Amino acid sequence: MSNSLDALESSVDHLRSLVEGLSESQYVASAYPTEWTVADVMSHIGSAAIISKRGVDDSLNARETPPQFNQSVWDVWNAKTPHAQVTDSLDADNAFIARLLEMTPEERESYTLNLGPMSLDFESAVRLRLGEHVMHTWDIEVAFDPQATLQAEAVPFLIDNLQFIMRFGAKPSGNEHTLHVRTTDPHREFALGQSGDGVTLNEVEDVEVFELELPAEAFLRLAYGRLDEEHTPKGIEPTYLDELRRVFPGI
Length: 251
Fold this sequence. Notes:
alpha+beta; Four Helix Bundle (Hemerythrin (Met), subunit A); Nonspecific Lipid-transfer Protein, Chain A; 2 domains; four-stranded mixed beta sheet; 10 helices; 6 strands
């Protein structure tokens, strides 16, 4: 996969093929986490697509999105039936990826996504959507296939975006130390630190001992709060996993 936008387009296609194979009764089946149904997850994906598309249009036209816009979208989607949440989400998801794909190089260069004090460029915004999309697709897929893993095409882009993602969801456990983590598929080596200032993740070199070694897709699910014991691949040293599950309660 040549870039993160291609990976996002692939995830959109994968979600559509997955959901179009479900029955109406499966729309209200529990997803992951179990307090959400499949339709709830789809509603989240769809409403986020509507909000994000509006954000692109407003950014390129140098105008502010009304502060009440997001809530108005959520209110509309919360009122939909499960069937509408699923089918309308597919339409909204497709419309948003189409909007991203049609943006010119100049538009991509000028685009800015403002998240509180942070401003993201086009590539960073795409990777943020990619992480959300891939994880929520897994939330649905794993409900019907307990062995489901994250889409392989997206993993390299997401693993290299983890330092940014940890700003949103990591919570220090109170145990101040550094763990060295090595991943496979792709190979990466990190120092995962906890201190009173927060949680950090930095790439390292020339480390001889790694306390945690696991597939990159499993490390991603851990960081997004989706590596419970039932969905942890075999062969991963469990010593630090309970602690890290508290550090990463979920995004």
